[in-house]
TrEMBL record:
It holds the Pfam family PTR2. Keywords: Cell membrane, Glycoprotein, Membrane, Peptide transport, Protein transport, Symport, Transmembrane, Transmembrane helix, Transport. It is found in: Apical cell membrane; Membrane. The gene is Slc15a1. PANTHER family: OLIGOPEPTIDE TRANSPORTER-RELATED. This is Solute carrier family 15 member 1. GO terms for cellular component: apical plasma membrane.
Amino acid sequence: PSCFGYPLSIFFIIINEFCERFSYYGMRAVLVLYFKYFLQWDDNLSTAIYHTFVALCYLTPILGALIADSWLGKFKTIVSLSIVYTIGQAVMSVSSVNDLTDHNHDGSPDNLSVHIALSMIGLILIALGTGGIKPCVSAFGGDQFEDEQEKQRTRFFSIFYLSINAGSLLSTIITPILRAQECGIHSKQRCYPLAFGVPAALMAISLVVFIIGSGMYKKVQPQGNIMVQVFKCIGFAIKNRFRHRSKEFPKREHWLDWASEKYDKRLIAQTKMVLKVLFLYIPLPMFWALFDQQGSRWTLQATTMDGNFGAIQIQPDQMQTVNPILIIIMVPVVDAVIYPLIKKCKINFTPLRKITVGMFLASLAFIAAALVQVQIDKTLPVFPTAVQSQIKVINLDTDGVTVWFEPQHQSVNVTSRGSTSYLTFETSTLQSFNVIYGGKTASQEIKLPGGNRHTLEVKNTATNIVAQLLFDNVTSKPEEGNNLIRFINNLPDTVNVTMGDTSFGMLASLSASNYNLFPGGRKSKIVVVRNSMPCSVTSKAFGFGSAYTIVINECSIDTLDVTYSEDIPPNTVHMAWQIPQYFILTCAEVVFSVTGLEFSYSQAPSNMKAVLQAGWLLTVAVGNIIVLIVAGASKLSEQWAEYVLFAALLLAVCIIFAIMAYFYTYVDPNEVEAQLDEEEKKKGKNDIVIYEKQADSRM
């Protein structure tokens, strides 16, 4: 059965691919944040495991291709590995259910190792599944066409690529929204089970859709794997060359010709072409090393930025959607506009030149990321080292005050109901402070533990000067763009304070509450109950990643007067500043990735496509391993320096590749094949002539 001149079966294949990519990219979008916030790993471990997982996903396709070509055939391989995949996604979803081990219901898992073990099992199964079916699905789609449907087949591959990007785009938008929901049985958390559960459900749908179409598919019997033959041929050539290494044996034109005793000329000629292309692949992994950091380092960078786009709040993991959105726009634009323009300028933009430009652009994108990082670093607060202490002064009085810190003779003047920023002291040299209101003075000795922040609240009451040193239990900027809020009660009575849904409890006069977490970018209602009389006010919008102390100064029937003291400034660098680096990297992907596969196919015989596809995917895997090595070996404490390092490495590789490309000669596999056909015909004719002569001489 056909539809619009296409075999009906491919619609099932395209829907299957859409669901599978949705499932994979959705899971991958929230993965690094799941590691960081749920499994509580630090940035470096999260990045390392993330890239190990991606590398595995690109190593397993070789396994999938071998199973499909030599043993099960494509259809059975896709079905059986999809089942493995669906189980993996389900295990992943279960591993993120916090109530699984949270017996004391405090909202964090009691036994993290159970969750870690489950998620690792899940990720391994997913890597087996997604990698194993990757080379089979597109090839299986190609198998559905007859030989004369060349045009439809090409169009199918474009639609196929679009369905991949549509799937990844939708899931990168939707999954982070699911993650940002609150859910849980006993206590409310970020909803990772839903964020992993929806991809699992889609994988199951994908599997069902694929099986429904079963009766319509053209199923080609497995013909043995060409990869195995290529490896055997290379192995035999090396062994044979090694056996005949003494001078008396004549040299052969190419080292692969040493396989001619055992393998036919055609296989040797094809293998030579493949090796020529694979040699060019050697520098390519460096590109993927940079490209795949969108999901790890760049997402972590977005967590320290301001995601307020007016009406909408962007989650840090949603910034990755910029890539598929731009791909869907850029692929047609580049093909229809940019390339023809370059052609008009009489520039011969060969495939290898395109790949070189792609590498150059990717290193530019990382320079852009480094520049953004430098801007972010400027806004980050400086916390005290182990031998330092920081103190900020909050004046709760309506008169100005002067505070002297001894023995450094360092003084600060604080205006009416004002506060200072944090002052840094060497802990060992700080002994006492004096508080001076007009003519009244109070002094107090202090001994601080070091490595912490403190707040000194001062007030001039009718009888004496009150000076209280509070311990600020905050040593890092709040994660995920949340805000920390605490209250100081500057009223003579005890009050009950709530903000939004969070109760701060009873606060005695001049005492401070603990810090509580609030989601970023929102306003909340503050309600203060004094002598069973409530008064309320709507807070200001706190931005992302800040910490504030709110002082309650006045509470009467209709007014609540509060002052805000900023302890940690909010994230001020806007997430939109990431768009340039995403744009440059997407341009790089369009000229690099799309060209790379096209070029490989044009330079090798048709039956070797699987080998090249495996080689291409291998470059992605190696690229992710490079991230592990570089990030692990470089002991760079500054993130921007690491970005510059990656950019420099890729630039160096780009120059090497340009030199290799300069010496590359393009081949036309069809001509080589035709030549071989000619030779075989001649050989056939010669054999017949020889046979006839032998027959004649016998008569």
